[in-house]
Amino acid sequence: MKRLSCLAALATALLVLEDGLQACSTFCIRLGDGTFVGRNYDFEIGDGMVMENPAGLRKKGFEKGGPSWAAQYGSVTFNQFGRDHPMGGMNEAALVVELMWLDETRYPANDARLPLGVLEWIQYQLDTAATVADVIDSNQKVRISDVAPLHYLVSDASGRTATIEFLDGKLVAHTGDTLPVPVLTNSTYKTSLKFMESRRGRVPSGSGSPERFARAAALVGALQRSGTDRPVASLFEVLADVAQSNTRWSIVYDQTGRVIHFRTDAHRPVRYLSMKTLGFTCAEGARLLDIDTRVEGDVSKKLKPYSTAANLAFITRTYAASSVTRRTPATEVAAIAAHPETAACRAY
């Protein structure tokens, strides 16, 4: 019962001020020989950790009856509610997974597939998948069992991109020919595309989900046509155009270069982290960095060793900062923070 109670608390965290998640915007773009993903994370609070997650760990799902798996790939993630519960990230294979709010989401009913929470699903994919096809295929083995209505944009090293939605209890994926515009905001992809096409080339203003989708699509398309010798800076400009008053993090993933660039509302200088400089070894363990640490440039050497105490201190802070979760019992917060202790390096 304690685990179920903890899951309810974690789900509640995502239900905080529903409007707070309704302004996220994400896109994928090819520029020259490179593939990039741009992402704005908009929410009530901006606290976060940049996490280095090692490969080689054997993990158990947080949910009762959840799967066990081995992390085949290391990853860098952006976390608000503790280790293994990221809001998004990129793995060693350059697979990127990012979430956005979607009111229309209806997850599958209980069945024989093994359950994962909405955030744990992201870490599971980054641990085990290298391609968009891998993510879609995983639907045969695992299902999301949660209440927070989200959908996802997934992109791999080849530039293949997919939107992953759960509508009427079924996974709906748009990719290839069914994904003419690699953008996702907070309406279903079908609804967003229909709105954009109705504009007949007129770029809308406004902060609504369809408007941001159409505007991001126009900006991404124009940038692809014109090209740029400063891709990262240009993509941050696109993100600034679709940002809202509660945009907390803006992230640019350089999938080809395996470099992650980010800035926050609390610390505006762009920082970066090259995945090629990280070991991702199980022996070295996980590392972390407060996302608002007052540093600039390369932050890879600023990462600190992970500990349950650090995870607990961080989660305690984020739960206290949220208007809904601040009443969560300390015992439940501690259980969430301690769960990564169940993971162990696998024997070879």
What does this structure look like?
The chain is α+β, with helices and mostly antiparallel strands and 348 residues long. The protein is built from eight helices and 21 strands. It has a single domain, classed as 4-Layer Sandwich (Penicillin V Acylase, Chain A). Helix content is 26%, strand content 29%. The model has no long low-confidence stretch (mean pLDDT 93).
Itemize the secondary structure elements and their pairings:
Blueprint: H1 2-14, E1 25-31, E2 34-42, E3 49-53, E4 57-60, E5 68-70, E6 75-79, E7 86-91, E8 96-101, E9 114-116, H2 118-128, H3 132-137, E10 142-144, E11 150-155, E12 161-167, E13 170-175, E14 183-184, H4 189-198, H5 209-226, H6 231-241, E15 247-254, E16 259-264, E17 271-274, E18 287-290, E19 297-298, E20 304-305, H7 308-321, H8 330-338, E21 344-345
What is the CATH T-level topology?
Penicillin V Acylase, Chain A
Could you state the order of secondary-structure elements as H and E? HEEEEEEEEEHHEEEEEHHHEEEEEEHHE
Number of strands: 21
Distance between the termini: 35 Å
What number of structural domains do the residues give? 1
Major sheet: size, sense and barrel closure? 9 strands, antiparallel
Question: Number of helix segments?
Answer: 8
Shape assignment = globular
* CATH architecture type: 4-Layer Sandwich
Helix content: 25-40%
Structural class: alpha+beta
The CATH first-level class comes to Alpha Beta
In CATH, the homologous superfamily goes by the name: Penicillin V Acylase, Chain A
In order across it, which strands form the biggest sheet?
13-12-11-8-7-6-3-18-20
Radius of gyration: 19 Å
